[in-house]
User: Fold this.
Amino acid sequence: MPKRRHRDPWPSEVHIVYMGDRPKDVLLGEPQHRSMLEQVIGSRVSESLVHSYQRSFNGFAANLSDEEAMEISRMSQVVSVFPSKVRQLHTTRSWNFVGFPVNARRASYESDVIIGMLDTGIWPESDSFSDEGFGPPPTKWKGTCQSSSNFTCNK
Assistant:
C-alpha cells in the first residue's frame, strides 16, 4: 500500500506585505516584520519570512496561506497584501508593460530617471531594446555608447 502524503492544511505561497514608506529607523524594519508575523503564524517566522524590505519601502515577503495573508492585511500598519508573482522580462518600455493608461498623470521628470538595470545576459540587438518610436536622448543625459564591431548603439 503506498504511503499517504501529508497535505498541509494551510497551503502557502509567497505574499508581499506592503507597509508604505521605508522605515525612518532602519533598526525597526525587520524586528517589526518578525513581530507581526509571529502574531499570526507563531513560531514559524524563520521558515516563513523570505525577505524584509527596508531600503525602498517598508514591507516583507513571507510564505503565507490565504487566511494568514488576510489576517495580516487587517493590521493597522499594513497598506496591502498580495501574492508575489514571477514576471518574465519583456521590454524596456515599462510604462506600457505595467499597464498604466496612456492618459495617467505622469511626473515631468520620469523620462530622465533610470530606476534599475537588470543584467539578464540578453543580446543588445534584442527587440526588447528597440528604439523605434523613441525620440532622441534627453539633452541633460551625459552618457555615451561605447560600441564595437559586434555591438550596435541605439537611442
Remarks:
- Residues 13-83 form a domain with the Alpha-Beta Plaits fold (CATH 3.30.70.80).
- The mean pLDDT is 75.
- Helices lie at 29-41, 45-48, 66-73, 94-98.
